[in-house]
Amino acid sequence: AFIGQMNPPGQGSNAQIDYAISGMSHFVTGEGQSASQKMLENAYLKALEQNEDREIKAFIIRQIGISGTDASIDKLAAYLNREELSGPASRAIASIGTEKAGQALTASLMRRMGTAKTQQDAVLALSYIPVNGAEELVKGYLNSDNADMRKVALYTLSKIGTRASLSDMAKAAESVGFTMEKTGANDANVLLIKRVFEQGHITDATKAANDLLKKSTKAGQTGTRIAALQLLMFPYLPDLQGTNLATMQATTMSAVDNRKAACKLLMGALKDPCKEYRNAALDAVSSIADKETYT
C-alpha cells in the first residue's frame, strides 16, 4: 500500500514513505519475523512488476536487498542486463549473499550479455560476497579496453583474490609505473598482497612484496616503496596483524623472533638515502622496538 502512494520523481516528496518502508524492511529481518518477511518480500516482488518508473523500481529493489531471500533472486537477475537498473539489482543480489545469489552474478557475466556498465555492476557486486569461480572470471576483465572495467575488476580482486591473482595484479601495477592513476592498479596490488598475508600464505606474499619493493625502487616511486616495506613488516607487527595471520605467527614465531625479523628489515631500510623511506620504516617498527633497537 505504501509503495502505491509513492510519487514519481519531480512530483512530490517521498521522504516519509521511504522512511516507513525502509523501517519495515529492516524490521522483518529480525528474529521470529520469517512469516512477515515472506509476506513483505512477496509484496515487493508484486510491486516491482507493477511499477514502470525507474526510481520507484530502484527503491523497491533496494528494499528487496535488505529483506529478500533466494525467492527474489530470479526476479532481480532479470534486471542485471538492464543498464538503468543493473546497479541496484546487482547490489541487492550481493546483499542477499547466498550461494544462489553468487551464481546469478557469475552467470550474468559468463553469458557476456548486457553492456559494459551492466558487466561492471556485476563484477563490483562480486566484491561483496564469496563465490566459487569468481576470481578467475573477474581476472578475465583485467585486459579490458575499458578503463572503468579494469578499475572495477582490480578493486574486486583486491577484495576476493587469492595468491592465484598475485602475478596478474603485479603486472597491472607495473603497467602503470606503480603510480596513482585512474584504475587504481597499484593500490589494488598492495591490498591483495596484504590479503594474501592475512590468508596465511606468507611465502607467496613475501615474494610479491619483495618484488614490489625492488621494482618500485627502480621506478623511483617512494610511496609504493613505503607500502612494500610495510607489507614486508606486516607479519611481525602485532598491531597490524589480521586474525588468521596472528594465530599462525603465534604458533611459529616468538615475540623475540618477530622483533628480530622486523628490526632486520629496519636496519636495511635505514641505509636508504631517502629520508621519507627511513622515517616510514622507523614508524612502522616502533610498536615492537626496544631500547636495543635504537642503540
Structural features:
295 residues, single chain, mainly alpha, elongated, 65% helix
List the helices and strands and how they pair.
Layout lengths: L14 H13 L6 H17 L3 H14 L5 H5 L8 H11 L2 H12 L5 H10 L8 H6 L7 H14 L5 H10 L9 H14 L3 H18 L2 H12 L9 H10 L2 H15 L5 H11 L10
Helix pairs in contact: 1-3, 2-3, 3-5, 5-6, 5-7, 6-7, 7-9, 9-11, 10-11, 10-12, 11-12, 11-13, 12-13, 13-16, 15-16
Describe the structure concisely for a colleague.
The protein is mainly α and 295 residues long. It has helices at 15-27, 34-50, 54-67, 73-77, 86-96, 99-110, 116-125, 134-139, 147-160, 166-175, 185-198, 202-219, 222-233, 243-252, 255-269, 275-285. Residues 239-248 have low confidence and may be disordered.
Description:
The protein starts with 14 loop residues before the first helix and ends in a 10-residue tail after the last helix. With 295 residues, it is an all-alpha fold. It contains 16 helices and no strands. Helices cover 65% and strands 0% of the residues. It has helices spanning 15-27, 34-50, 54-67, 73-77, 86-96, 99-110, 116-125, 134-139, 147-160, 166-175, 185-198, 202-219, 222-233, 243-252, 255-269, 275-285. The longest helix is centred in the last third of the chain and has 18 residues, at 202-219.
